[in-house]
Amino acid sequence: MTAVRLVGAAVQLVGGLLLAPLLPGLVQHLKARLQGRRGPSPLQPYRELRRLWGKSTVDVEGTSAVYRLAPAVAAAAVLAAVLVVPPTAAVAGWGVGHDVLAVAGLLALARFAVAAAAWDTANGFALMGASRDLMIAVFVEATLVLALAVAALSAGSTDLTSIIAATAGIRPWAGPLLPLGAAAFGLVVLAETGRQPVDNPDTHLELTMIHEGPLLEYAGRDLAYLQWAAAARHWVVLVLAAGVFLPHPAQPWAQLALLPVLLAALCAGLAVAETLVAKMRILRVPRFLAAGALMAGLGITARLAGLA
Amino acid sequence: MIGTVVGAVLAGGLGAIAVGGVLSAGRRSFAAGIGVQTAGAAAVAVAGFWVLLAGLRLGKAFGPGYTFDAGVPGPPDLRWGVDGLSGLFLAALGLVACAALPFSRRYLADDGRGRASAALTALFLLVLALVLLARDPFTFLFGWEAMSLVPAAVILVNRRADATSRRTVFTYLAVTHLAGVATWVAVLLAARSGVLAGAPIATGSGLQVAIALTALFGMGTKAGVMPLHVWLPRAHPMAPAPVSALMSGVMIKVAVYGLVRVLVDWLGVLPSWIGVLVLAAGGFSALGGVTYALFQHELKRLLALHSIENIGIILLGLGACLVLRSAGAGTWAAIALAASLLHTLNHAVFKALLFLGAGAVERATGTLHLDRLGGLLRRMPWTGATFGIAAMAIAGLPPLNGFASEWVTLQALLRLAGLAGWGAGSGGGSGGVGEGVAGVLGLAALAATAGLAVACFVKVVGLVLLGPPRGRLADRDVREAPASMVAPMVLLAGACVVLGAVPGLLLRPLAALAPWPVDDAPLVGPAGVALRLPSTGSLPTLALAAVLLTVTAGLLLARGGGRRRAAPAPSWACGQVVGPELNWTGAGFTKPLRLVLESVLRPSRQVVVRAEGGVVTGVSYHGHVPALIDEQVYRPVARTSVALAARARRLQTGSLGTYVGYLIALIVVLLGLARTGVLG
Residue B15: pLDDT above 80? Predict the structure, then answer.
């Protein structure tokens, strides 16, 4: 039992740190294939990180310490979130707890840092992206907390290890609660990872950028931190999705073994979604996410009323 | 023994505030008086925390305020006392005053008005403490009314009673006194029925519901709960910054004290619909306060609206406590109460800091208009850094104190949703579907509020501290505030960090304030400084802070560790030269949210394009987000009352003959009634 706990903790840190860039790479690769292109290799994000690591950073004229702090703070916050989200039900903790609501706070910290840096550069495109990101975040947070409430109520606890244990197997999927929560969380995944139909990660047009906008002024290691943070954000929400909102086995070893499969399936799902769906008008995104919140709320209400 | 010491410290502190207040009115002893007041405030803070942490009860318990001697009321029986709940609020009062007072020494001009303000500040502190220490209805209500009047006097003294301030003070006093009637009704009913002195009261009895509803209305108005809040965003910004800090940081908290005292301490187990009502008021205040704050352009007014939001969060915790208690889940009810009180203390600290920061900014730049500030972090590093910390704390970001209390509140709301379907993990108890749905809605409201608060404070930090100086600020010589103003802000920023790192130390004493028996076994254990609650993933605040700090520091070191130096470059604007005309405004930044919330907020927008011979020579834009509750509810009511008053005035002709006529008519009517036997 201790072995699996240690391996689980190792997977959590190593996966979050090193394998995270593979996830957006895989999505890009699969998407290109689906669209009949050869596309970049799944390892492309690593090459970009290596290239950025060797380049010099840029200090935008007239900026303060906030501009220089923001990439580090954003990366630190996402790393802390990686340490909170366990890959299996039995895992040795990293000392930061496993609380699911803490994840929402840490992701908000990263968002705050990046948006504040956008103000510091006074770059119109960065601010445009940040203002849209924060508008979407309001609805993402409400939907995220409700989807997480579905998970927490299934387990009677907000401890992620108990949640993963309680949602294992097929039985929790019998009622409408978990499927509705999973649908809500799916919309959150699209928004948090900056995928279509909420955001377009491939855009090179400044006017349409959301998550990419505040990154415009950064270069070198700063940009490497921010790109790693974006990839690790994929890791956090996809591991959450795989551990809670997809059917998974109850055995910790089996959970660890199945994790790569589930993550690959989720990446494939994101690629398919990006291929099928066009980006929606930004002002329709809140309604799209509110639908998720309604689904989660409906699931909880049905369960409260004893219908499930 | 220890009680005597704490009592002496408390009495000494209050005495020092009184002496300091008198001294600060003197021309020569102004600075000394403020020093004595500060020392007194520090003593009050120490005594308050001591009472809370040691669970002391000093002085007398609550009494009805008079004794009946053979059916005839005897002399009034005025009582004093302090318990843990009073201790917490005294601690908040002392802590905020400890920062606001030294700040005011340089902030207030050393002239007649400044000295009068300093003396009135001491009086304000004393009446606030009076409410907290009162143990009979008369002292309580006297303090309650004086607490409204003193800041009105400060505003009038400070603004030379100009037209705007007279109007504001009138609105403020009218609203708080009209609603104050409900407070009187609640407290006097509680005194008459004896629940104030500890008599039991039946759940759901008419008396209990009447006391609860009148208290909620009267004290809710004083706390600034939406839709009873209209006075707050008007009055708070008018006062000088240290007094604004006391109003937002302490005065509305004393109203929360009143609510907790009545709803939790006196009234026993309330029917759960009252808890749901408190939840609804809390959710509405939280969302409404932050939404209107987003579209504000004036810094202090924005901060005042955020007070409404935070009072909403406090009420969400309090409502969860009431519902959980009526459902019989005692442990979680106590945790919800602790969440609410912890957020009260946290909000007192960071809101006072924000108001002091706004005062320092106004003193240095001469404006509070957000679109005319900017770049102050570099020119006022200390003020800027502390203001930034407070902004992150109020936005509910880890690892600061706002996040800790919002996390516990979220957990309590989740327990509420879990009551109906999930008996396990809720610490016992059972509840209905309605309560569960209320919990879910409260959860969503709090999450959305947190998201909106992040957006709002990114805007504030960006506009005030970051980017280039806007408007005429670029040419102005802006200096950092003097050390006597910076030190108080550093103190409060330190409190934000400490309360965020070790909230676990306070959580258990706060949960122990619940007057019902609490099984605190889950809370004892290896609680320590972290937040470890039953059936949560726990929030090891200190470890989280350590991880965030070390990783950030490591990444910053690695950033500078490359072979190449950072290259300076201008900001990218597609090749255009970045000039002041490309600067973003607050209205631009919040535009996506304004468009999304258009159907709720009904903003007005006016764009005028001036063209000469087909060439555009100028564009002017005017946008406005109206305060709907003011315009749709209060204005019609005020208009109707004024119209009715005008009609009633026709009776008052001023001629003696008419009044004699009224008297004769009255006598005739009375005689007629007596004749017909109606009067008996």
Answer: yes
> What distance in Å separates residue A23's CA from the closest CA in chain B?
22
Closest residue in chain A to residue B408, using alpha carbons only: A101
For B258-290, letters b (16+ CB in 10 Å) and e give bbbbbbbbbbbbbbbbbbbbbbbbbbbbbbbbb
Q: Report yes or no: B216 and B262 within 8 Å, Cβ to Cβ.
A: no
Residues 6+ positions from B676 with CB-CB distance below 8 Å: none
Region B434-446 average pLDDT = 89
Asked if A222 lies within 8 A of B543 by C-beta distance, the reply is no
pLDDT attached to residue B428: 45
Type of residue found at A297: G
Q: What share of chain B is helix, strand, coil (3-state, %, to 5)?
A: 70, 5, 25
- A159 contacts in B (CB within 8 Å)? 535-538
Are the beta carbons of A138 and B468 separated by less than 8 Å? no
User: Which tokens sit at B581?
Assistant: 């005309």
Placement of tokens 């850094």 in the chain: B385
> Which ipTM was obtained for this model?
0.94
- For residue B672, the SS3 value is helix
Give the pLDDT of residue B449: 94
Nearest to B468 among A62, A79, A131 (CB): A62
- Residue B35, phi then psi, degrees to nearest 5: -60, -45
- Residue B607, SS3? strand
Chain A / chain B CB contacts < 8 angstroms: 298
Nearest-neighbour CA in chain A from B288: distance (Å): 14
Note the helical H segments in B591-655: 591-596, 598-601, 628-629, 635-649
Beta bridge partners of B604: B624
Residues B493-520 have a mean pLDDT of: 86
Structure tokens at B577: 């030269």
- Secondary structure (3-state) at A189: helix
Handedness of CA B654, B660, B666, B669 (dihedral sign): negative
| pLDDT exceeds 80 at position B678 | no
Interval B146-158: pLDDT, tens? 998 998 888 888 8
- Determine phi and psi for B531, rounding to 5 degrees: -95, 100
For the entire predicted model, the pTM comes to 0.93
Structure tokens at B108: 């207030």
Bond into B468 cis (ω within 30): no
Q: Residue type for B174, please?
A: A
Q: What is the pLDDT of residues A159-175, one digit of tens each?
A: 888 899 888 888 888 88
Residue B539 contacts A where some CB pair is shorter than 8 Å: yes
Q: How far is CA B393 from CA B126, B406, B559, in A?
A: 29, 10, 27
**Which chain B residues have a beta carbon less than 8 Å from that of A161?**
537
What SS3 class is residue B71?
coil
pLDDT (average), residues B400-411: 92
Give the span between the Cα atoms of B158 and B178, in whole angstroms: 25
**pLDDT higher than threshold 60 for residue B429:** no
Residue A238 pLDDT > 50: yes
Of A59, A99, A135, the CB nearest to B568: A59
As a whole number, the mean pLDDT across chain B is 87
Chain A residues in contact with B536 by the CB 8 A cut-off are 99, 157-159
| Alpha-helical regions (H) of B62-136 | 84-107, 112-133
A66 pLDDT band, cuts 50/70/90, is: very high
Tokens standing for residue B199? 């008599």
Q: How far is CA B230 from CA A31, B287, B295, in A?
A: 54, 15, 16
Structure tokens at B421: 């379907």
